[in-house]
């Protein structure tokens, strides 16, 4: 799950400490939990969705791709367009957009309408997630900002570990439309909570989009960002098609939710341990280990699929490693970007979040293209991309310092 893209300090306009501010951030965490679940929930029931809307599973994966692309492209544009809006009104509006978009997805009679509603949902997510972090930082005194951000990021983390698997179980029992309705209800509850418990905060000074993107002229920043796209692309070639891909390893549909939960546990562990390890050993070493583990786990799963070897316990272990390697990237990459442009920390982290979603969209698209060639090819392609990411890291490590 991508970390919240916020500046190291909230703007002067937003610096309004509220009573019980840390407790108030819990409602923001509910919002990021709903957004995180919405971002990846389709992976758990993609074949059922495809059958219901009469498209192939590979085609249905485009719903994940368009969500990721709309988030990546919409995030910097929305940040510019909504800069002056009061923060509470913006957060509530973004969550209500997510409510309507998910209800639209749940009721979609055709795949084309589903795609349109997923784009709208992505724009709501892109408006909510960065601002939730900024508001959390503004609600507490400086010495508590790290904890406030951790609470909000925790919503995304928990969504990876629990929200998606629970959505998969709900989709399995009641249907995929019920799962998306559940996400809409979660967003509605979060909107009501934000409206009731988050104090009014003014907007920020407007910053032109061209000025926001000027940081890309920094050679170190330009060298680091493509690695995020490569690494997340490698991680997500298989993820959106987890049901058929894990099925090739002998994991039935009811057990897929447990495997996705193991992936989430690995993601949480990888994300948390990466921050500590980056401080102690350096970002390049953490990323080197991460891409090596990613390549090894995905290649091993490919071998299992090719040889028709079915050992669920081994698949579960490999899935934990896959999740950990996928999400150990974010803290290390953020560390490298902030070191490269310390005066533009919030902006470069936001750009990294966009690159995360570009990688997710690209990886999912590649997965859809290769799905018809079998799980072995999908796992092999993902492992190859992880190796390419490792090679790119080694080639650009000096330039990105």
Secondary structure: elements and pairs:
Blueprint: H1 21-40, H2 46-53, H3 57-60, H4 62-81, H5 87-107, H6 111-139, H7 145-174, H8 176-197, H9 209-213, H10 219-239, H11 242-247, H12 253-281, H13 283-306, H14 312-327, H15 329-340, H16 345-370, H17 375-396
Helix pairs in contact: 1-6, 1-7, 1-8, 4-6, 4-16, 5-6, 5-8, 6-7, 7-8, 7-12, 10-14, 10-15, 10-16, 10-17, 12-13, 12-14, 12-15, 13-14, 13-15, 13-17, 15-16, 16-17
Features:
single chain; Growth Hormone, Chain: A; 401 residues; mainly alpha; disordered N terminus; 2 domains; 17 helices
Structural description of this entry:
It is a single chain. With 401 residues, this protein is mainly α. It folds into 2 domains: 1-207, Up-down Bundle (Growth Hormone, Chain: A), CATH 1.20.1250.20; 211-401, MFS general substrate transporter like domains (Growth Hormone, Chain: A). It is built from 17 helices and no strands. The protein has helices at residues 21-40, 46-53, 57-60, 62-81, 87-107, 111-139, 145-174, 176-197, 209-213, 219-239, 242-247, 253-281, 283-306, 312-327, 329-340, 345-370, 375-396. It is globular, with a radius of gyration of 20 Å. It starts with 20 loop residues before the first helix and ends in a 5-residue tail after the last helix.
């Amino acid at each position: 799950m991508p970390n919240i893209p916020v500046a190291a300090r909230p703007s002067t306009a937003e610096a309004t400490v509220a009573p019980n501010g840390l407790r108030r951030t819990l409602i923001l965490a509910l919002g990021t939990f709903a957004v995180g679940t919405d971002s990846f929930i389709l992976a758990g029931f993609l074949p059922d969705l495809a059958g219901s809307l009469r498209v192939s599973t590979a085609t249905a994966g485009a719903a994940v791709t368009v969500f990721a692309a709309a988030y990546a492209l919409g995030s910097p544009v929305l940040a510019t367009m909504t800069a002056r809006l009061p923060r509470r009104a913006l957060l509530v509006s973004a969550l209500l957009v997510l409510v309507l978009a998910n209800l639209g997805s749940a009721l979609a009679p055709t795949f084309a309408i589903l795609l349109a509603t997923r784009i709208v949902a992505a724009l709501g997510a892109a408006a909510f997630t960065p601002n939730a972090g900024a508001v959390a930082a503004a609600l507490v005194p400086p010495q508590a900002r790290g904890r406030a951000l951790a609470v909000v990021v925790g919503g995304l983390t928990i969504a990876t570990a629990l929200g998606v698997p629970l959505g998969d179980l709900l989709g399995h029992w009641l249907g995929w439309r019920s799962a998306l309705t559940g996400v809409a209800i979660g967003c509605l509850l979060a909107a009501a909570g934000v409206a009731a418990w988050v104090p009014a905060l003014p907007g920020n000074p407007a910053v032109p989009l061209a000025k926001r993107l000027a940081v890309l002229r920094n050679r170190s920043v330009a060298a680091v960002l493509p690695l995020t796209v490569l690494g997340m692309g490698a991680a997500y070639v298989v993820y959106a098609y987890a049901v058929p891909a894990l099925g090739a390893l002998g994991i039935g549909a009811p057990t897929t939710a447990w495997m996705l939960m193991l992936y989430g546990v690995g993601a949480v562990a990888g994300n948390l341990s990466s921050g500590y390890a980056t401080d102690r050993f350096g970002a390049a070493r953490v990323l080197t280990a991460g891409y090596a583990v990613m390549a090894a786990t995905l290649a091993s799963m490919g071998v299992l699929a090719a040889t028709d070897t079915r050992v669920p316990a081994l698949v579960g272990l490999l899935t934990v490693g896959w999740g950990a390697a996928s999400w150990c990237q974010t803290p290390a990459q953020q560390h490298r970007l902030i070191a490269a442009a310390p005066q533009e920390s919030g902006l470069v982290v936001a750009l990294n979040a966009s690159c995360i979603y570009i990688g997710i969209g690209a990886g999912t698209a590649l997965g859809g293209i290769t799905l018809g060639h079998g799980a072995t090819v999908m796992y092999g392609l993902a492992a190859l991309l992880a190796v390419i990411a490792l090679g790119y890291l080694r080639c650009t490590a000096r330039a990105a310092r």
